[in-house]
Amino acid sequence: MPDQWITSVGIDIGTSTTKMIVSRLKLTRTSSALSLPRYDIVERELLYASPIHGTPLLGEDEIDAERIGELLSQDYEKAGISPRDLKTGAVIITGETANKKNASRIVHLLAERSGDFVVATAGADLEGLLAGKGAGADRRSMHTRGAVANLDVGGGTANVAFFARGKPAGTVTFHVGGRLIQVDPAGTIEAVSPSLRPWLEASGFAISPGQTVGFPLLREICAAMCRDMLDYLARCALPAGGKETIRKLMLGDPLPSVPVLEEWTVSGGIGGLMAAKAPDSLAETAVHGDIGPLLAHALRQCCERYPIRLAQPDQTVRATVIGAGMQSTEISGATVHLDASLLPIRNLPVLKLDISPHMLAREALLKEAAAGVMRTAASLFEQDASPPFALALSGMKHCSYESLQWLSDALAERFREAFPASRAMVVVCENDLAKALGQSLDRRCGGRPGIVCIDQIRVEYGDYIDLGEPISGVMIPVVVKTLAFHNRTVGGTHA
Amino acid sequence: MKLTTALLGKTFQFKSLKEVMAKANEEKSGDQLAGIAAEDAKERMAAKLVLADLKLADIRDNPLLPPETDEVSRVIEETVNEKIYGEIRRWTVAELREYLLQQTTGNDEICRISRGLTSEMVAAVAKLMSNLDLVQAASKMEVTSHCNITIGQRGVLAGRAQPNHPTDSIQGMKASLFEALSYGIGDAVLGINPVIDSAESVKQLLNATKEVMDQWRIPTQNCVLAHIKTQMKAIRQGAPADMVFQSLAGTADGNKGFGIDIALLDEADELIRREGTGTGPNLWYFETGQGSELSAEAHHGIDQVTLESRCYGLARKYKPFIVNTVVGFIGPEYLYDSKQVIRAGLEDHFMGKLQQLPMGVDVCYTNHMKADQNDMDNLAVLLAAAGVNYIIGVPMADDCMLNYQSTSYHDIATLRETMRLRPAPDFERWLEEMGIMANGRLTPAAGDPTLFM
Amino acid sequence: MERTISLERLVDGVLTELEKRIAAAASPGGDEAGGMPLAPVDLFGPAASRVPDPKWEEGVNELIAATPARIGVWRAGTRPLTREMLKFRCDHAAAVDSIYGQVSPAILEQYGLFTVETRYENTENYLKRPDMGRIVTDEGVEKIRSACRMNAQVQIVVSDGLSASAVDANLRDVYPALLDSLKAYGLSAGTPFFVRGGRVAVMDHIGDILQPEVFVLLIGERPGLVSSKSMSAYMCYRPRKGTVESDRTVISNIHQGGTPPLEAGAHIGTVVKKMLEQRTSGVNLDL
C-alpha cells in the first residue's frame, strides 16, 4: 500500500472565540517489508486555518448553535473541503463553554456537519494536552532535562499540560482567564464568572457586577491570580495544606505530584496578548470589555519571578485547535480484526484489564479475570448498547497460543452472558495481538456479536475512545479522549 | 601466455587465465561452491607459479570479462594510464610483488604505478602475497579523502559510528550514537543502515544525525545506507545528506542484482554534488565484499578475489570518501572460517588501497561462521598495522539490527591506544573540546552517553 | 466523573483479589517452575547502566530503554567490563549452539509432522553447500509422495534451517495460529511435514513434487545475539524449480521479542488468501 493522506479537522469553540483548521496527515508504512505491516502518521500539513471568529452567543449562557454551523459551512467552503472528505479530527468545546446550556446539542450538530468521523469532545484535561501539543511543548521537552509546561490561557480557564522527555506528564486546570471578569472602560464591573467567585472571596477581593473599581485593584487581582497559579506549577506551594486560595483557583483535583519544570510556554488568547504593550489604564484594559490584556501582562511579569525559562510557543491563540486537528489522531496496528459494518463508533467508554505474565500462564486465573471484568462491565454499562464499552487489554507481550484460547473462551462466553443483546464487542489491545485475538473471538462468536479488535493503542480506565472507518481495509484512525490524569497510577500499571 | 608448469613431478596445464586466477587463490569456500577452486594444495601452488610468471600485458590482453559486454570492465579499461602501463607491461606479476615490497618503493612510487594497473593485475599480485606482505605493502600507501573533514592520514584510525536500530527508532539510534561519540567514535561517518528502505525513513535519519552534528558542532559527515534510489528521493525532498552510499559488485550483472548501473551512479554523483550537504570533493561511500557476485549468480566463473578487485576499479571512478569491505557478513558458504575471513580482509584492504581507495574494513562475522570475537580482535590489529583508514564501531560489537558482530567502540579506542593511532585531527580537536580525549587518550569522562543529552 | 471513579475502584478490587491469588499460586513448592535453575538469559538480568558517574543519571536509563543495543556498558580502560564481555560471549554461545542443535522430537510428534531430510549430510556441509539444502533426498521424496496430499490449496512445511531452537521456541504459537487463520478464511491445508537441513529454496523442490497452490515454509533463521530463536515464514505462490527470491513473500524475526508469533501466524492466513486471489506472490503481491 502506498502512502496515504487522510484529512482531519479541528474545531475549537471557546468562551470568547471559535476557530477551525483543516489539515492532512500522511500515513506511511513504518515497519520493514519483512515485518508485519505497521503504519504511522509521519507528517502533518496544515491546509486551512479559519479566521478567529467571536463565539456567537444567545444570551449569557447559551451558544448560538445555528450560527456556529453557518460559520463552519463558510470555512469548509473557503478551505475547499467537503465534510465527506474528513476521516478524523476533534471538536473541542473549551473552558466554560462546555458548561453552557446547549453544549451537547452543539456537539451533536457539529458531528453531523463535520463528516462521518469527527470526534466530539469536551474536557479540560484533553484540551490542555492538545493545546500543549499544538504549542509544541511536547517537542520542546525532548530537548530539556526538566519538564516543560504549556499554559493555555483563554477566556475562561487556563489548561496546563506537563510534558517530560516528549511524553505527557500530567494536566491541571485553573480558573484563570481573560473573560472571567468583564469590565467597561469606566471601571464598571459587568460580570464576574461564578467559577472565580470562591477564589475572589478566599483572597479577600470583594467585587460584584455593577460595582465600579479602579485600575490598581484589577491589576492586583490579576497579579494574585497569576501568582497562585504559578506558585502551584513551580512547586512553591503545596496543594494540600498549602494556600487555601490555590485550591479555590483549581478546577478538579490537584496532581499527585507536580513535575519539576525547566521551561514553560503560554498559549491561548492570553498567550497571544503577552507580547503587547502593558495596559496603563482602565480604558486600555477594557478594549474587549474584559481583563484580558491586564491578565496577559500580569502573567508575563509574574513568570519572571521563577527560575523557569519562559519560551515562545509554536502557536498561541490557535494552539488548541491545531492540537485538536493535527495531534489528536492515532492509527491502530495494521494487523487487526474489523467488522467494518460496525464502524465508526463514537465515544465509547473504556474498561481496562491489565494481565500479568502470571495470569497468562494460568487458565483459572485468566478466566476469572475475564469473568471479573465482564461482571464489572455489566454493572456499569447499558445492556443492549452495541457496543456497550471497549475492553482494553494490556500486559500481553508474551502470549502463547494456549493462553489465547483460554482468554478467548472466557471473553466470548462472559461477554455474551453479560450483554446478550449486544451486537458488537470492541477490544483494544496494547500489544500487537489483535488479529490473532480477533480471529479467535470471531470463531467463537460467529458474528453474534461482531468483533472489532484493534491493537497498538494505549488507553486507560476512564478514557473514552472513538474508532473511525477503516483505511485501506486494514487499520483505523483512533482518538483517545483522556479525561483525567489524576490518580492514574492507582491500579493502572501492574504487570 | 604460458599456462603450464611442472611441480613435484607433475605437469599442470591450465586452460585459461580465468582458471589460473581462481586456482591461485588461497582456499575460500566461495570458490569451492562455484566449482572453480584448486583441487588440492599442489594445484593451488601450480597456479600460483604460473601466475607469478605471467606478464601484466598477458592479463590485460586476455580480459576475463570483455569490456564490450561488461560496463565494469569498460570503466576499469578507461582509467588505465597508457604511458605508465607501457613502462610496466612487461613486468611479471612476481616482479610487481617485489617492486611493491622494495624498501625504495614508497607511497609516491606506488601511487604512480597504480595508474597503470587494472583491477585484475591488482588481484593477481594479491594472490602471490602472504598475509604479512599484504600488511606491509598496504601500510606504505596513504590515501586521504575529504568530505567535511579529512581522514586517512598516516597515524590516523577513524571509526564509523553505526548506531543501527531494529525499527529505525530515532531515539534508539541517537542512544547508540551518543555512546559512540562518548568513546571518540564517528570521525569516518555517522552511518546508519535503515530497516525501512523508504525516503521517509532516510529523511528522518539524515535529519536526526544532522541535528546532532549541528547541536554539538561535530566535525564529521552523515550518511544513511539505503538503496541509492531511496537516498536520491530523500535528497530531492530536501534531506541533508553529506554523502551517498551504494553497495557495488564487480560485474555489470552483479550490479543489476543490486538494482544499479553506471548511468544511475552517474546520476547520483551529479545529484550529491549539486544537492548534497557535504563539502567534498569526496562524496561517496561504497561497500563491497567477496562473494556477492556468486550469491547473485553473476560471477561469470571468475573467482571472488578478482571480482572484489573489480569493485574497487569501479569505485575509483567516483572518488569516494570511504569504501569498506564488509568482509565476513556474507556467510560461511563464501568465507568459511576465521582464517578465510582474515585473509579476505587483508586482501581487500590491500587491493583497494592499491587502487587508491580510502579503504576501511567491516571486520565482522555471522553466527553460522566458524569465527568468534577473538578472531575479529586479530584481524583488527592486523588491519591497524596495515594502516586501514577506518573500521566499524557498533555497541559492544553486536549489531542489534543487522544481526551480526563487528568491532566495538571499545575496540577502536583500544586499537588507537595500543597501536599509537589517533582519531582524524579535526575530530580529535573536537573530542578535546568536549573533554572526551586528552593527549590522544580517553579521559575519565569518556564512555558516558549522557554527555550529549 | 463519578462513574469513572467507581469503575476504577471496582476494577482495582478485582485486581487486588487476583494479585492475592497469584501470590498464593506462586508460593514456593507449589509451582511447576520449582527447582528449575534460572535460564541463562535471566542470569544477567535486564540491561542496566554501568556508567559510574554519568552526567545525567535518568538520562542513561532513558537511552538504555530506547534500544536493544548494548550501551551504557562502561569500560575497564578502553576494554569492556568483564560481565558485559561474558554476557556477549554467552549470547554468542547460544547462537552457535542453536545452529548445531536438533529440533525436539516431541514437538514434531505433537503436530504429527513426519521428517524428511535434504542432501545436506552434516552441519558443516550444510553451511558450505546451501545448494544441498535445497534438494530433498530420494528417500524423502518417496516419503512425501506416499504420505502427502497432492495439489493442496496451502502446503505447510517446517524446517530447522539455521536454528533448531527457533522451531522449538515458536512453532507451538505460530503453527496453530496459522491453522486457525486458514480456517477463518475457509482455506484448506495439505499434509504438513518437517524437513531436516532445509534451505528456503527447498520449497521449490517440494513444490515440484506436490504442486500446491501456495506454499508456507516456517524455517529457523540465522541466529543473532539478540535472539537465537528467530523464525521466518516464507510464502510463495506455486513455487517450482527456478523460482526467484523476489517471488517469495517473507515475514521474518518471529520470536517473543520480535514479530509476535501469534500475530504472525494469524497474518499468514491473510497473506495466503491474497496470494490465492491475486495468483502471485513476492514483489508482485499487493498486500
Automatic annotation (TrEMBL), chain A:
Which InterPro entries does the entry link to? ATPase_NBD (IPR043129), EutA (IPR009377), FtsA/MreB (IPR050696)
Alphabetized Pfam families for the sequence:
EutA
Q: What is this protein called?
A: Ethanolamine utilization protein
Task: Identify the species of origin.
Answer: Paenibacillus darwinianus
UniProtKB/TrEMBL annotation, chain B:
**Residues at which adenosylcob(III)alamin binds:** P194, Q246, S295, M401
GO cellular component: a single term? ethanolamine degradation polyhedral organelle
Q: Which reaction does it catalyse?
A: ethanolamine = acetaldehyde + NH4(+)
Task: Identify the EC number(s).
Answer: 4.3.1.7
Q: Which residues bind substrate?
A: R160, A161, Q162, N193, E287, D362
Note how many cofactor molecules are bound and how.
Binds between the large and small subunits.
Instruction: State the compartments where it is located.
Output: Bacterial microcompartment
Q: What is its main location?
A: other
User: Which Gene Ontology BP terms does the record give?
Assistant: amino acid metabolic process; ethanolamine catabolic process
PANTHER family from the entry?
A: ETHANOLAMINE AMMONIA-LYASE HEAVY CHAIN (PTHR39329), ETHANOLAMINE AMMONIA-LYASE LARGE SUBUNIT (PTHR39329:SF1)
Family per UniProt?
A: Belongs to the EutB family.
Quaternary structure, per UniProt, is: The basic unit is a heterodimer which dimerizes to form tetramers. The heterotetramers trimerize; 6 large subunits form a core ring with 6 small subunits projecting outwards.
Q: Quote the protein name from its UniProt record.
A: Ethanolamine ammonia-lyase large subunit
Whose protein is this, by species? Answer: Paenibacillus darwinianus
Automatic annotation (TrEMBL), chain C:
Query: Reaction(s) catalyzed by this protein?
Result: ethanolamine = acetaldehyde + NH4(+)
User: Which top-rank group of organisms is this from?
Assistant: Bacteria
Q: Where is it localised?
A: Bacterial microcompartment
Q: In which pathway does it act?
A: Amine and polyamine degradation; ethanolamine degradation
Cofactor(s), names only, from the UniProt record: adenosylcob(III)alamin
E.C. number, please? 4.3.1.7
Family indicated by similarity? Belongs to the EutC family.
Its biological purpose is as follows: Catalyzes the deamination of various vicinal amino-alcohols to oxo compounds. Allows this organism to utilize ethanolamine as the sole source of nitrogen and carbon in the presence of external vitamin B12.
The record's comment on cofactor binding reads: Binds between the large and small subunits.
Q: Would you tell me the protein name for this molecule?
A: Ethanolamine ammonia-lyase small subunit
For this record, an example GO cellular component is: ethanolamine ammonia-lyase complex
Q: Which NCBIfam families match?
A: PRK05465.1
GO BP annotations of the record are: amino acid metabolic process; ethanolamine catabolic process
Oligomer status and interactors? The basic unit is a heterodimer which dimerizes to form tetramers. The heterotetramers trimerize; 6 large subunits form a core ring with 6 small subunits projecting outwards.
Where along this sequence does the record place binding of adenosylcob(III)alamin? V200, E221
> One GO molecular-function annotation for this sequence?
cobalamin binding
By its UniProt entry, which InterPro entries does this protein fall under? EutC, EutC_C, EutC_N
Q: Which keywords does this chain's UniProt record carry?
A: Bacterial microcompartment, Cobalamin, Cobalt, Lyase
